[in-house]
Amino acid sequence: MIANALPTVRLSGPVAVNKPAINFGVSFSGVYYPFRFDRDTLPNGRYIVTIEDGKVPNFVGWFDLTDANGGQAPIQEGPPPATNQAPTVQNQIPDQTGKVGISLSYQIPNNTFADSDGQIVQIGVNGIPLGLSWNEPVRVISGIPQMPGTFVVIVTAMDDKGATVEDRFNFVIAPDQTNPENPPPTSGYQNTFVDVPPDPDILDLRYSWSNINGELLAHITNAAPTPTPQPGERNMWWISGYDEPFYDNFPNDLYVPEDTWLNVYFGQGPRKEVYNQGYINKSNQTMYIGKANT
C-alpha cells in the first residue's frame, strides 16, 4: 500500500454523506490516515465510518455528534450498539373488582410485560382507588377501598435503558350495601346524595337538574373557588370516567345521568406523572346521582 494513497472513506448517519466533514484519524493497515469532515454540514446524531482500500478487511467504526459546537465522542471501532427496543405489553391486565370496606389484594402478573433486548427494572401504578397502596417489589395492589366507583389504573413498566410502556385496566369498587350512606347504584334507588366535602375551600361539589335534549341530567359544579397553584404547577381535577385530568379549572359542562357514582380528586403539580411524581392530591369527594329531582 502506498502511504499517501488514501482509501475510500464513507459516513452514514442521520443524513448520508460522502464528503469532507470532521477532523479525525484512523490507523489502518499500519498507516495513520487523517480525515476532515465539515461539521457545519452534519446534524447531531450517530454516524458510521467505513474505510475501504480493497486489500485488507474494512475498518468500521462509529461516533456521536452531540452539540452545535461540534462536540464529538471518540470514534469507536466496530458496529454501533443496537437501538434500544421499548418493552411491550405481553398480556393485558384484566379488570378488577372490590367492595368498600372489604380488604383486597391483587398482584400484577410476571408475564404482563416483556422486553426483547433488556429487562424490566421498574413498574409503577397511577389511579388506584382511595384506600389502596402499591408495593412495587412484589407488584401488589392491596388495602381496604374507601370509596366506590370505577377507577382507571395505569400500570407503567420501564426497562434498564429508560424506555417505557403502559397498560390500563378498570378497578371497579362497589359500595358498602350495609351502610345507608353508601347505597348501591341500582336503578331502584331514588335519592341523590353528596359526601360532606373534607375541604370545602378546595372542593365542594353541587348539582342541579337540567333538561338536555329531552333527558334529565345532573349538572355538576364546584362551589369552591379555584385555587391558585404555585409557579410552574397546574390545577388538576381527576373525575371518574375520564382517562385524563381536567386542567386549570373545574369543567363547566359536566353533566351526569341518573344512577351514576361520581368520584372527583383535586391536586396540583407541574405535570401528570405515571409514578405519582410531580402531582400531589389535595382533596377528594364523591356523590351518587339517583333519580331526577331527588
UniProtKB/TrEMBL annotation:
Q: Name one Pfam family in it.
A: He_PIG
One of the record's GO molecular function terms: calcium ion binding
A GO cellular-component term linked to this record: membrane
Q: Where is the Dystroglycan-type cadherin-like domain?
A: 88-180
Family annotation (Gene3D superfamilies): Immunoglobulins
Q: Which InterPro entries match?
A: Cadg (IPR006644), Cadherin-like_sf (IPR015919), Ig-like_fold (IPR013783)
Lineage top rank: taxon: Bacteria
UniProt name for this protein: Dystroglycan-type cadherin-like domain-containing protein
Q: Which organism is it from?
A: Fibrisoma montanum
Organism lineage: Bacteria, Pseudomonadati, Bacteroidota, Cytophagia, Cytophagales
